[in-house]
Each structure stands twice: as C-alpha cells, then as structure tokens.
C-alpha cells in the first residue's frame, strides 16, 4: 500500500511584516507611511497600546492587502502610554499578588459603578477626601480611633438599641430647644449640680421630693 501524497499549499504572497510611521488617524483606522508608500491599517487585537501620530510601528500586510499594527517600536519625544481594549478586560494573578504602582498617583474612574470584593481591605493615607452624595454602610462592628472629629451637618439622626458615652468633659451649645423624652431619667453628680435659667418649671402628677441637709429657697 503506497502512502498517499500530501500536497503542501503555500500562499503565493505570504504575510509581509514592515515598519513605518503613523501619519494620521481617522474613523477607518491609522494611516501609515512606509518607504514612500501609504497604508490604511487597523490595530491588531493583541496590540494593547493604542498608537499615536508619529509612532514608529511594526505592521503586517496579508495577501488581501489587509494591514494590522502589531507593535509600537518607538514613540519620539513622549512616554505617555494608553492601553485600549475593545471589550471587557480581566487581570488575573492566579497564584500571586497584583500590584498597581504610580509614582505620581493612580486615578480610577468609571461612568457606571466600581465594585470591590475581598476578605480584607486596608487603606493607609495621610489625607483622604470623600465627596459622596449618598452612603449606605452595613456591618456588624465599627472601631475607630481618631484624634479629632468635626461634623458639620444639617440633620443628624441616630437610632440605636443602646447608647454608651464615656467623656472626660462635655460642652454643648444649643441655640434652640433641647428636648428629651424618656421613661425614666436618672442623673448622678459627684460634686456640684447647677442649673440656671430665667424661668424654671417642674411639674409632677404625684410627689416631688427634695432631700438635703440644708435647703435654701428665695
């Protein structure tokens, strides 16, 4: 039995790789000048860096005269780099850590939403500015250690099952009404209890008890 002959089909014009310079950009793609000839090219899918005018690029030409920019060789007088992707992008460090380092800063922006999910989250900074229109925080425990806290708000509403405050000194300045509604109020003062007002009224439905060694009235 004779082995079948296998014919190898070879393209009469294989893919050619050349270098050139981007002259202009338009809605159709990139205009490349190479050896006094001009080509209209698009960016290859694996070329992540978005080309710019005056870039020296490496591009391919297939049998159908389709041109694709494969890589950027040199960008004269500029080091700015923009990675552009046509669709969703996933960066995966399957067995290691992913580091983003910007010497002058890191900017993250989105037209819709930014989601972050992790087992732990650590934020360390000298200064932080949050400009958020609406915030909803859900958790089971909050511990904060802050040297100075200043809150400026139109309305502050606190709803809690129990409220415990331990203060060394407390000073309150209220321009309007200070109202407390409670079932029972117990006040214990170690030394001096002083209350001064232009008018004072104490109303009780049953008993009023004043107990002291000496009572001065008038």
Task: Please describe what this structure looks like.
The chain is mainly beta. The protein has a domain at 16-74: OB fold (Dihydrolipoamide Acetyltransferase, E2P) (Beta Barrel). The protein contains no helices and five strands. It has strands at residues 16-26, 29-34, 37-43, 56-61, 67-74. A five-stranded mixed beta barrel has the order 1-2-3-5-4. The termini are far apart. The relative contact order is 0.08. The mean pLDDT is 88.
How would you summarize this macromolecular structure in one to three sentences?
This protein is an all-beta fold and 218 residues long. The protein contains no helices and 5 strands.
Features:
OB fold (Dihydrolipoamide Acetyltransferase, E2P); mainly beta; 17% strand; 218 residues; five-stranded mixed barrel; 5 strands
What is the secondary structure topology, with strand pairs?
Blueprint: E1 16-26, E2 29-34, E3 37-43, E4 56-61, E5 67-74
Parallel strand pairs: 3-5
Antiparallel strand pairs: 1-2, 1-4, 2-3, 4-5
Compute the number of strand runs: 5
Mean pLDDT: 88
Helical content (DSSP H or I, runs of 4+): under 10%
Distance between the termini: 133 Å
CATH homologous superfamily annotation of the domain at 16-74:
Nucleic acid-binding proteins
């Amino acid at each position: 039995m004779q082995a079948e002959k296998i014919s190898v089909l070879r393209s009469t014009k294989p893919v050619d790789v050349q270098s050139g310079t981007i002259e202009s950009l338009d809605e159709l793609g990139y205009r490349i000048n190479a050896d006094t000839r001009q080509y209209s090219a698009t960016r290859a899918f694996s070329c992540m860096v978005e080309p710019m005018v005056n870039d020296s690029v490496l591009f391919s030409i297939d049998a159908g005269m389709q041109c694709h920019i494969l890589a950027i060789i040199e960008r004269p007088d500029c080091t700015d780099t923009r990675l552009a992707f046509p669709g969703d992008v996933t960066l995966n460090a399957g067995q290691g850590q992913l580091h983003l380092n910007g010497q002058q800063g890191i900017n993250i922006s989105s037209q819709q939403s930014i989601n972050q999910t992790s087992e732990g989250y650590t934020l360390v900074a000298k200064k932080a500015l949050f400009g958020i229109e609406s915030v909803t925080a859900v958790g089971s425990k909050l511990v904060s250690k802050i040297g100075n806290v200043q809150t400026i708000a139109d309305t502050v509403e606190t709803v809690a099952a129990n409220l415990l405050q331990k203060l060394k000194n407390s000073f309150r300045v209220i321009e309007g009404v200070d109202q407390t509604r409670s079932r029972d109020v117990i006040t214990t003062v170690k030394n001096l209890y002083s209350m001064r007002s232009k008018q004072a009224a104490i109303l009780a439905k049953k008993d009023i008890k004043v107990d002291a060694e000496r009572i001065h009235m008038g």
